[in-house]
Amino acid sequence: MSIKEIELFANDIRRNLVWAIGSKGGGHIGGCLSICDLIAVLYGEVMNYDPNTPNWQERDYLVCSKGHAAPALYAALALKGFFPMEWLKELNRAGTNLPGHSDRKVPGIDATTGSLGQGLSIACGIAHGLKVQGKNQYVFCITGDGENDEGQIWEAAAYASHYHLENLIMFLDWNKKQIDGWNKEVMQLGDLAEKYRAFGWNSSVINGQDIAEIRQSIHKAVDIRNGHPTMILLDTVKGAGISCIEKIENNHCIGVPDSLVKESLEELEAIRMQLKIRYGES
Ligand SMILES: Cc1ncc(C[n+]2csc(CCOP(=O)(O)OP(=O)(O)O)c2C)c(N)n1
Ligand SMILES: [Mg+2]
Q1: Which residue puts its alpha carbon closest to atom 20 of ligand 1?
Q2: What CATH number is attached to the domain comprising 77?
Q3: Is 64 exposed, middle or buried (0-12, 13-18, 19+ CB in 10 A)?
Q4: How much is the pLDDT for 280?
Q5: Could you tell me the CA-to-CA distances from 226 to 35, 47, 120, 164, 221 in Å, in that order?
Q6: Which residue from 146, 152, 138 is spatially nearest to 230, judged by alpha carbons?
Q7: Which candidate, 142, 166, 161, 154, places its Cα nearest to that of 192?
Q8: What does the alpha-carbon distance between residue 167 and residue 151 come to, in Å, rounded to a whole number?
């Protein structure tokens, strides 16, 4: 996909996730929006997958360790044809095909997550298994910055380094906030890029809302294969891409009434038009 196509895909993901969360009446919209650009790059270009055979043995894997951001993945998976778009309006209801947190029963979801801190360990297990079998696939894992307060994350970080899991690429969504407020008030973790480097990882900091930068950093991480796992710290904004949601200070898990859905969709439509104009289309 070209940068333009990925940007339009990210816009589509945002539109569908707002619609899905809105049809439930609310949800974890802030932490979904901050990773939409990443998800667009992963499913738009980087990852190998087959929507008709979600469990294809040769696929790349994605573990969304911050499982509450599942609606962002679901929107991308629906757009890529893993399941019908109509499923999105059943999000997080009794008996649904799409539980509120990432669930292995959903076509295209590789791990059930939601209890924060566990997903990186699952990703390590998958990556180690692939390495032992001499496979070339990659395992991607998305963690939250608040989630990195969890001790299990750091056990997994040590494990990945010890076993030279160079097929593991982890993203840390540095959106500065968690459920109880700003990270700096809940738990100071200091320089996370330096911490992962000290644990034996390749690490870098990029603008997590810049598709060209995300794309370049992932390609670099895929190519490097120097015996170390890679952590990419995404400097992001909670609620990114929709200003009326971004400006709500506590936008972790909020009510999303029809009026907010309408305002969000209008803004996303305006952004889509601007993208088309910028890239020279009517
Ligand atoms: C073990 C565990 N403790 C608490 C929670 C409740 N919880 C859900 S989301 C969240 C905050 C996560 O913050 P962060 O990782 O920064 O996510 P983001 O900002 O990307 O939404 C918490 C505490 C949980 N899901 N799992
Ligand atoms: Mg956060």
Answers
A1: 31
A2: 3.40.50.970
A3: buried
A4: 83
A5: 27, 20, 20, 9, 10
A6: 138
A7: 154
A8: 23
Query: For ligand 1, is residue 40 a contact (CB within 6 Å)?
Result: no
Question: Cα–Cα distance between 21 and 215 in angstroms, integer?
Answer: 27
Residue bearing the CA closest to ligand 1, atom 19: 178
Tens of pLDDT, residues 83-118:
999 999 999 999 999 999 999 999 999 999 999 999
| Contact (CB, 8 A) for 233 and 221 | no
- Environment of ion ligand 2 (residues, CB < 5 A): 144-146, 175, 178
50: its two tokens: 């087959």
List the domain range (segments joined by +) for residue 10: 3-278
For strands 139-144 and 168-174, give the pairing.
parallel
Give the chain's length: 282
Verify whether ligand 1 is closer than 6 Å to residue 101 (CB atom): no
Q: Is the CB of 116 under 6 A from ligand 1?
A: yes
114 lines ligand 1 (CB under 6 A): yes
- How many angstroms is it from 41 CA to the middle of ligand 2? 20
Q: How far is the CA of 175 from the centre of ligand 2 (A)?
A: 5
- For 116, the token pair is 């924060």
As for how many domains the chain has, the answer is: 1
Per-residue confidence (pLDDT) for residue 198, from 0 to 100: 98
| Cα distance between residue 239 and residue 235, in whole Å | 13
Query: pLDDT value at position 228?
Result: 98
Q: Residue 106 CA to chain centroid, in angstroms?
A: 16
Instruction: Give the DSSP letter of residue 201.
Output: -
- The low-confidence residues of the chain, meaning pLDDT below 70, are 282
| Residue 238 to residue 62: CA distance in whole angstroms | 21
Tell me which of 37, 68, 92, 150 to substitute to probe ligand 1's pocket, judged by most ligand atoms within 8 Å of the beta carbon.
Answer: 68
